[in-house]
Structure formats: structure tokens, C-alpha cells
Design goal:
binds adenosine monophosphate; 5-stranded parallel β-sheet; globular; GMP Synthetase, Chain A, domain 3; about 625 residues
């Protein structure tokens, strides 16, 4: 069947479409229906089914006789380690870990926070939670203690599972002191912490609170899978919102299983036994959906890669991993390819590897610029597929569904909406715009299975953030247009989210940090175009009257403050001191105008600007950084 037929089939009868897709999941009790609209505009899927995620991702493949197939390949150039884990081994390891967690009191519905780098144990920790029906919340290793503390206080975990350290190319990240600091800062205290000691750094355990990963499993009974209701939360994943407080995106169990399973076959064109690799991190949604759950639910082999696209040891690492492990579908962020292209512009390192098993390259996480797509397509001679999605949705809103039909690629577009998503482009009044016209991208409710039903303990914030601007629609926060052929183009965010090296960050959260510096009276943070990372944060600081300190000292302190408060992932390295911020007469800071000046784009100062002269000061300041080259 062709894409158009599949999409039309879904639109004609969504209930039948999703009930059919649900048949590929092993239910303890099959759901009687797909959609539950009782609490509209909050929607649920498969609410009356009973199911277990770990069973579907692990045990059922062993029961089907594929216990000897590899479930996980761990390839870590930063520690020079490789390891393979079969489905049978994975089941035993996860059952043992889950049993030990249960012995210490973790039960269905309890939250467990996971703070781990890219090691197989991170997936095992997620799956052990799923086995018990506990709700995990994984936090990315590049966040600082205070960000971790905010998440601890929001999800109130009974337990925390962490590694002793992470390994970046140039340094060891001391996870344990970051964790201890976060627990000190948080009001909520976990009952216990499980520490996975890595050989690169053995952490000091706190007696009475911390237990050792291996030691605490000794002598405990392995746990069986605990069935949960289809609408039971599988996990919470925090993401940047419009204010400093991160949003706890909730992922529902039943819809997550059904939707991810559907995507593996229909979008990524892989099935049992195929090797699938997403080069992301378990701390991001890509890591949840496509390093851990998606490939395992579909019975693939997933690659856990601990390294960088360049420098570990060279720009051929990705091609080496793909060749060595016979990866069929590979998913990465455009930034990673730009990093490789910068070092190996002629893609000479590709030729050193046998990439015959490699069929399709998938890109997401940020806008895929045509240069990068064309470079990769020419170097690899396979289709390069851009697709668009968000932490909130958990799977692609728009893609080129290679398992259904390879649609013509239009460079610059993530192609077409997937079944489940009725995508519209709206003007400010919420009216649909003509093809080719820029507007806010919104998805008609209900969103499909697997997408967020709400935010953790925050129904009102969920409604206010996503459902209020355009009643009857989910507001994606992205702006763009749809062309005459129904292809989508994602152009910009409509809020303060910026995308730095495929990492989603909030400039509002950064402004909150800068405002806390004692010498800063007012500030603004914008994302300026960056050839490698897509965007890069830049701060503007107005200092209190009477501050006579060296500008460079204040800036250095602000850079350090950001690293301490948000973490190295913020990548905040530059700030400028100016006398005042450009504002409208009603006091709104003109961030969009500042971005245009920085990126040397044409702009028109709004008629409501308080004092146009301030824009000249900004341009001059930006030029000291090599930005704002044209008027
Ligand atoms: N734990 C701790 N610190 C981390 C971290 C982690 N898991 N990941 C990154 N950091 C740190 C880095 O060490 C760096 O610190 P520094 O300022 O001391 O150098 C900082 O966070 C910024 O990291 P990053 O954005 O990764 O920049 P980089 O210069 O180290 O690498 C790229 C540049 C392009 C190679 C890298 O950004 C990359 O691989 N990007 C692709 C990201 C991706 O796949 N995103 C997909 C999300 S879906
Ligand atoms: P995250 O929640 O971290 O996955 O970030 C989601 C945001 O990243 C989206 O709302 C977009 O702004 C951006 N994004 C993700 N994929 C794409 C894409 N293929 N093209 C353009 N922007 C994208």
C-alpha cells in the first residue's frame, strides 16, 4: 500500500487503524477500544488494556525463540570497550535488577530517577523500571546539580539509579558529586540510590543511602513483568519550556508500545534481527524512543554508542560502527554530520569501510540544512531522510515513511505527516493559511497514541502551554509552511526554545540564571546562527549603575554561573555588555530583531520601538564577535 492510501485509511477510521496496529503488541488483556475521550481535551489511548513494556521489549523475543539474538551492542571508543548482550542475557539482567529494586520497596507507580551515561546499564535500568511498572525519569548527564534537583523535586523519586561517572573525550564527568549535590539541594529525598561503579572512577558511597549496583542484587529474587493499564505512565522526560521550570512530559504505556512498534517497520524499515542505531543519548527523547524502546520492541539489535562523531578517535567513527555492526538504519542529528564534514569535507573516511548493509540515514532534532543533506547523500549514496518530531510526541510527526513507500525527497522538508497527525498551518487568529504561507504549525486533537497525554502533575500547565492558543489543536511551538504537495517545512520556533547541537534549550531559563548575577540589572539571551551547532546562545547584559568592574570579569562569571546552574550542555560561552536593551514602548524586549541583526539578516525595526538608536549599539557590540557583518 502507498503512503497516501495508508494516511487516508487512518483518517477515515483512526480507531480501526490503531486497533490493528495494537495487535502487534502482546497484551495481558487486550484493549476493547483505542481512543478514550472521556477527559477531552486530554486524551488517552488503550486505557483498558493491560500490558508490560519490558515484556514486549525483551521477554517476548526470548519466548519466541530469539534469546540468542543480540539485543544490545555497546561500542565505546571513549573507554575502548565493546560488549554484546543477547535478548536472553538482557532478560536475566533486567529481571535481576528489577528484583533487587523491588526488594528495596520500589513498586508500580513509584518514580525512579536515572542519571547515567551511554552504557548498556542505562537501558537495563529503564527496562527494570518498566518491568515493575515504576515510572522512570532519565536526566541527561550534561545538566548541573541544580537542574537535577529541580527534577527530583518535581517527580519525587523513591530511588535514584546513577553511574559513578560519565566519560567525555577530554575529561571524566564526576556524576556522583553532582548527584550528591542535587540531593542536598532538593527538598525531596530518595529512599536509596543505586550506584553503578565504572572503572574510570569509583565513587564513594554514602552509607545507609547508597547501594552498589551489583552488590544489592545479590541474593534477591528476579522479578516478573507487572502488567499495567494502557494509560499508566511509562516515563517522565523533562524538556525545556517557555520558562525556567522544565516540563515533565508524560509518556503513556500502551500508546508508546503501539506507536513505536509501528514506526520501526513503517518509517525506519527495520524488523526483527536488523541492526538499528540512533547516535543520541538516553537523556533525550531520541534515546528513549530509538536507542532503548523502539528497536527492542521491534526485536532489532540496538547500538549503544559512547563517543562523539569526531575525535573519538576520528571523523570516520560513525562509518566504522555502521560497517562493523552491520547497521541497516542509522539516526543522527545534522550537527553531528556538520562536525564530520568540517573535518573530512570530501568524506574520504567513508571509503575505508564496507557500508553495504547501510540502507537509510535519518536526521532529526534540528533543522537539516540542504548543504548537510546533499553532502551526506553524495558521500553515502543512500537516501537521507529528514524527519520532524519533539519530546512531546515521542515519534515522528512528519517523515518519509521508507517502510511504506520511499516518497520523493524534497531537500529542506521533513516530508509528510504520519498517520495520527492532522497537521495544519494557522495564522495568528487560528485560521488555516494557504499552501506556501508561513504560520504556526498545529496538530488537530486528538494527538495519536504514544504522544503526551499531559505534563506530570500539571494538567493546567499542559492545557495552557499547548491547547489554549488554538482551541481544538495542539500547538507545536514550531512555525513553517506546507507546500502544494503536502510537504511540511519547519522554519523556526515561535517561543524561546533554541536548538544548540540538537539539544533543546530555553533562553528564558538562561535569562533567569544571568539575572541572578549581582551586577546584572537586565539581560536577554538569544540564539544566533552557528555553522556547526545550528544555533549558539549569546547573552546581552546591562549592568547595575555604579558597577565599575572589568566587563570581561563579569562575563566570565556569567559563563561560569550558567555552567554551574544549567550545565555544560547549555554551551553558553559568549556575552556582551550594553547600556540598555532594545524594547517596545510597552517594555517587550525585541529579541527577534536582535537575532536578525546578529545573523546579518534584513530587518525592520518595529514602529513601537522605544529608542531605535540602541540597535546601532547592539550592532557595534555584535561586530566585536564577528557577527552582524552587514547593516
Ligand atoms: N555529560 C556531561 N557533559 C556533556 C555531555 C554529557 N553527556 N554531553 C556533552 N557534554 C558537555 C561537553 O563536554 C561540552 O563541554 P565543554 O563546554 O566543557 O566542552 C558541552 O557539554 C557541550 O557539548 P556538545 O554540544 O556536545 O559540544 P562538543 O563541542 O563537545 O561537540 C558535537 C560538538 C557537534 C560533536 C556534538 O555536539 C555532537 O555530537 N552533537 C550531536 C548531538 C546529538 O546527537 N544530539 C541529538 C539529540 S536528539
Ligand atoms: P526535542 O524536543 O529536543 O526533540 O526538540 C524538538 C524541536 O526540535 C522541534 O520542536 C523543532 O523545533 C526542532 N526539530 C526537531 N526535528 C526537526 C527537523 N527535522 N527539522 C526542523 N526542526 C526540528
Amino acid at each position: 500500500m502507498a503512503y497516501a492510501e495508508v494516511y487516508a485509511g487512518w483518517k477515515a477510521d483512526p480507531e480501526a487503524f490503531w486497533m490493528k496496529a495494537a495487535q502487534e503488541i502482546d497484551w495481558k488483556k487486550a484493549p476493547s477500544h483505542a481512543l478514550n475521550a472521556n477527559k477531552a481535551p486530554l486524551y488517552e489511548w488503550f486505557s483498558d488494556g493491560m500490558v508490560n513494556t519490558c515484556w514486549n521489549a525483551v521477554d517476548r523475543h526470548v519466548e519466541a525463540g530469539r534469546g540468542d539474538q543480540l539485543a544490545i551492542i555497546y561500542d565505546s571508543p571513549v573507554t575502548r570497550t565493546k560488549q554484546s548482550i543477547t535478548y536472553a542475557e538482557l532478560r536475566n539482567r533486567v529481571a535481576s535488577l528489577a528484583g533487587a529494586l523491588r526488594a528495596k520497596g520500589v513498586e508500580k507507580g513509584d518514580r525512579v530517577l536515572i542519571y547515567m551515561p551511554m552504557v548498556p546499564e542505562a537501558l537495563e535500568a529503564m527496562l527494570a523500571c518498566a518491568r515493575l511498572g515504576a515510572v522512570h525519569s532519565v536526566v541527561f548527564g550534561g545538566f548541573a546539580s541544580s537542574e537535577l534537583a529541580v527534577r527530583i523535586d518535581d517527580c519525587k523519586p523513591r530511588a535514584i539509579i546513577a553511574a559513578s561517572c560519565g566519560v567525555e573525550p577530554q575529561r571524566v564527568i564526576h556524576y556522583k558529586p553532582l548527584l550528591d549535590g542535587a540531593i542536598d539541594m532538593a527538598s525531596h529525598k530518595p529512599d536509596f540510590c543505586v550506584i553503578f561503579q565504572r572503572p574510570q572512577e569509583v565513587a564513594k558511597l554514602i552509607e545507609g543511602r547508597d547501594v552498589n549496583w551489583h552488590g544489592f542484587q545479590y541474593g534477591t529474587e528476579p522479578a516478573d513483568c507487572v502488567p499495567v493499564a494502557g494509560n499508566h505512565p511509562a516515563y517522565i522526560l523533562y524538556t525545556s519550556g517557555t520558562t525556567g521550570a522544565p516540563k515533565g512530559v508524560v509518556r503513556p504505556t500502551g500508546g508508546h508500545l503501539v506507536a513505536l512498534n509501528w514506526t520501526m517497520k513503517n518509517i525506519y524499515n527495520v524488523g526483527p534481527g536488523d541492526v538499528f542505531w540512533a547516535a543520541s543519548d538516553v537523556g533525550w527523547v531520541v534515546g528513549h524512543s530509538y536507542i532503548c524502546y523502539g528497536p527492542l520492541i521491534a526485536g532489532c539489535t540496538t547500538v549503544v554508542f559512547e563517543g562523539k562523531p569526531v575525535g573519538t578517535p576520528d571523523a570516520g567513527t560513525f562509518w566504522r560502527v555502521i560497517a562493523e555492526h552491520k547497521v541497516k538504519s542509522f539516526f543522527t542529528a545534522p550537527t553531528a554530520l556538520r562536525a564530520i564534514k568540517r573535518v573530512d569535507p570530501k568524506a574520504e573516511l567513508v571509503g575505508n569501510h564496507d557500508l553495504s548493509a547501510f540502507k537509510t540515514l535519518y536526521l532529526a532534532g534540528e533543522r537539516a540544512d540542504p548543504d548537510t543533506i546533499n553532502w551526506a547523500a553524495a558521500a553515502l549514496k543512500i537516501p537521507v531522510i529528514d524527519h520532524w518530531w519533539q519530546t512531546e510526541t515521542g515519534w515522528a510527526i512528519a517523515a518519509n515513511p521508507m517502510g511504506i513507500e520511499a516518497l520523493p525527497v524534497k531537500v529542506g522538508s521533513p516530508s509528510v505527516p504520519m498517520p495520527g497527525y492532522d497537521v495544519h498551518v494557522l495564522d495568528e487568529g487560528g485560521h488555516p493559511v494557504a499552501p506556501g504561507t508561513l504560520g504556526a504549525i498545529a496538530v488537530k486533537l486528538p494527538l495519536p497514541p504514544g504522544t503526551l497525554p499531559t505534563l506530570w502533575n500539571a494538567d493546567d500547565r499542559f492545557k495552557k502551554s499547548y491547547l489554549t492558543t488554538y482551541p481544538g489543536f495542539y500547538e507545536t511551538g514550531d512555525a513553517g509552511y506546507i507546500d502544494e504537495d503536502g510537504y511540511l517545512y519547519i522554519m523556526a520556533r515561535t517561543d524561546d526554545v533554541i536548538n544548540v547541537a540538537g539539544h533543546r534549550l530555553s533562553t528564558g531559563a538562561m535569562e533567569e540564571v544571568l539575572a541572578n548575577h549581582p551586577d546584572v540589572a537586565e539581560c536577554a539571551v538569544i540564539g544566533v546562527a552557528d555553522a556547526l551547532k545550528g544555533q549558539s546562545p549569546l547573552g546581552f547584559l546591562c549592568l547595575n549603575a555604579g558597577v565599575t568592574r572589568d566587563d570581561a570579569d563579569v562575563i566570565a562569571e556569567c559563563v561560569k554561573l550558567m555552567r554551574d546552574k544549567i550545565g555544560p550542555v547549555a554551551d553558553f560561552k559568549r556575552a556582551l555588555i550594553i547600556s540598555r536593551l532594545p524594547k517596545t514602548r510597552s517594555g517587550k524586549i525585541l529579541r527577534a530583531t536582535m537575532v536578525k541583526i546578529a545573523d546579518s539578516e534584513p530587518f525592520k525595526a518595529p514602529a513601537t520601538i522605544e529608542d531605535p538608536a540602541v540597535l546601532d549599539e547592539i550592532r557595534t557590540a555584535l561586530q566585536t564577535l564577528g557577527l552582524a557583518q552587514q547593516a
